[in-house]
Write a structure and sequence with these properties.
Radius of gyration: 16 Å
Helix content: 10-25%
Shape: globular
Largest sheet: 6 strands, mixed
Distance between the termini: 9 Å
Bound molecules: guanosine-5'-monophosphate
Number of strands: 9
Length: 177
């Protein structure tokens, strides 16, 4: 499949994304009231979402960035998660909030949750994803927070790429097949 910009249909507009992100931040501000948080942005896909979300978070917060990849074609994941760069400070006793772009098979989320469990004794762990493709799930995992549910479409924009492109779009789009 090739995706050209003129083929893209808007799935979530900039306004819809920003409105929902504010709502998620409000929920988090209530949940973490008086607590400090370490927000971990999973590069590269979650970069736009993480940056916009943390601007609305009011608790004392530190940001960390990790990079993962899963081998596969441009539009499907292989299911094999590869930790490209996962250097983190000591997270023992911290409230950790993982920020992802999309949960698809759930393997990346599971890898990260297991990684935190093996390496740290965190105070709390929450997993937040902008998008949730519930119907393609292969492992039994649910994000604690998600922005929107999507069906089995390959989506691009707002951090999500097709072959490296379209991360800079302000909206999330898809190609109608
Ligand atoms: P998983 O299958 O492990 O839950 O998802 C892993 C990664 O696959 C996501 O973080 C994302 O980078 C990529 N991915 C899954 N679905 C889509 C999609 O519809 N569009 C794009 N651009 N990436 C996706």
């Amino acid at each position: 499949m090739e995706i050209k910009i003129e083929d893209l249909k808007v799935l979530f507009s900039e306004e819809q994304l920003q409105k929902r992100i504010k709502e998620l931040a409000q929920e988090m501000n209530e949940f973490y009231k008086g607590e400090e948080v370490v927000a971990i942005c999973v590069l590269k896909g979650a970069v736009m979402f993480a940056v916009d979300l943390v601007k609305h978070l009011e608790m004392p917060l530190k940001m960390e960035f990790i990079r993962l990849s899963s081998y596969g074609s441009s539009t499907s994941t292989s299911g094999k998660v590869n930790a490209v760069d996962i250097k983190l400070p000591n997270l023992n006793g911290k409230n950790v909030l993982i920020i992802e772009d999309i949960v698809d098979t759930g393997l990346t989320a599971k890898f990260l949750i297991d990684f935190m469990g093996v390496n740290f004794n965190v105070k709390s762990l929450k997993f937040c994803s902008l998008l949730d493709k519930k119907i393609t799930r292969k492992v039994d995992i649910e994000p604690d927070y998600y922005g929107f549910e999507v069906d089995d479409k390959f989506v691009v924009g707002y951090g999500l790429d097709y072959d490296g492109y379209y991360r800079n779009l302000r909206y999330i789009g898809y190609k109608e097949l």
